[in-house]
Amino acid sequence: MLLSVIRKLDEEDAIRYTIILILPTRLPPRPFILSLSQKECATALCACLLVYCFTRGKIVPHQGQLEASLALTSGRDSAVIARTGYGKTLCIAILLLLEPGTITLTVSPLKRLQMMQVRDFMQKYNIPTIAINEDTPQSPELWAKIAKGEIPHLIVQPEQFRMNHGHLPRLARLLNDRGFSSKIARVAIDEAHNIYTAGTVINGHPAFRPAWGALGKLQVKLPKTTTLQALSATLPGYIYHTIHQNLGFRSDSLIISASINRPNIIYATHVLVDGRRNLHNLDCIIPDPFHPPMHLPKIVIFHGEKIETSNVSQYLNARLPEPFQKLGIC
After folding, report:
1. For residue 142, what is the domain's CATH number?
2. Predicted confidence (pLDDT) per residue in 72-100, tens digit
3. Are residues 199 and 284 in the same domain?
């Protein structure tokens, strides 16, 4: 009952309830609130109240999350470029809380990530959510609920939207049903950089997962009012340009960019001898000799190819003393 009341608040009542329930120090900056129109202000404060209530006072949206949400409520596409821990998940959840009765499709790359996202949306925000991939049960009862819009949040691997291994997945067939597709109010693309890194031909190499590069074709099956939101921590200009073109972002789309700096991460440069394929460049990561109680700091090494990644893992593992190999240290 309280939640339905919050969703209908006008600006004046939204301000009153917010002041009563939430400490001013936890609210977004006052200049940001004052810069909004009356309708936007009411929406932003209602979002704060809803999230505050659903999380039992633990979370209040910050300015960037509200900006992303307001873009979608006004019919604008958006890109959220922010580090892990910024709260990109809440950017998706806010609209589901504000607009019950609508469906959000979230495109997610990995099954393990889907599982974590389902848990977060169900436990933190009490939003019915299901992961759709090749392991999703074919239960008629489950798919009847999905078709009726009774599950408002579907976290989907991109392969489920198109022909896959010679057959058309169930969700792809369901999208041809206007009764279902008309309920889809927004599509969130998590780890959106995959549209470029996994979905396009790069330097003559075929796309690793072509389904990512085909996401733009979804527009044909969705209402014109469906908004799109791309979320990633890594969207340099050339990748964002590819995403913008692939998805067909509207001309008034919004980019929300936050610093990717984290207090527990240190950036450093290291000169490579004979290029990145010379694995001896990585010898500095594991001291020689390595022995307890030596501590290895957490280091993330990115490679654009699976074979290179595998070679690096095997090489670093082999540099450890035999009792420490294959323990997941590297």
Report:
1. 3.40.50.300
2. 999 999 999 998 888 899 999 999 999 99
3. no
Q: Do 76 and 32 have their domain in common?
A: no
Q: Compute φ and ψ for 296, nearest 5 degrees.
A: -100, 120
Q: Indicate the angle between helix axes 38-54 and 88-98, nearest 10 degrees.
A: 100
Q: Are residues 21 and 113 in the same domain?
A: no
Q: Domain range spanning residue 288?
A: 279-324
Q: CB of 225 within 8 A of CB of 185?
A: yes
Write out the E strands in the chain.
78-81, 103-107, 129-132, 153-156, 184-190, 227-232, 254-257
223-264 per-position pLDDT tens digit:
999 999 999 998 899 999 999 999 999 999 999 998 767 777
**108 shares a domain with 206:** yes
CB 5, CB 46: distance < 8 Å: no
Total structural domains within the chain: 3
pLDDT tens profile 177-203: 999 999 999 999 999 999 999 999 988
Same-domain status, 146 and 289: no
**293 prior amide bond cis, ω within 30:** yes
pLDDT digits (tens, 9 = 90+) for 27-53: 999 999 999 999 999 999 999 999 999
One DSSP character per residue, 38-85 reads HHHHHHHHHHHHHHHHHTTTS----HHHHHHHHHHHTT--EEEE--TT
Residue with tokens 């041809």: 176
Q: Do residue 69 and residue 121 come from a single domain?
A: yes
CA distance 233 to 265: 14
Same domain, 146 and 218: yes
Residue that is written with structure tokens 């420490």 in the block? 324
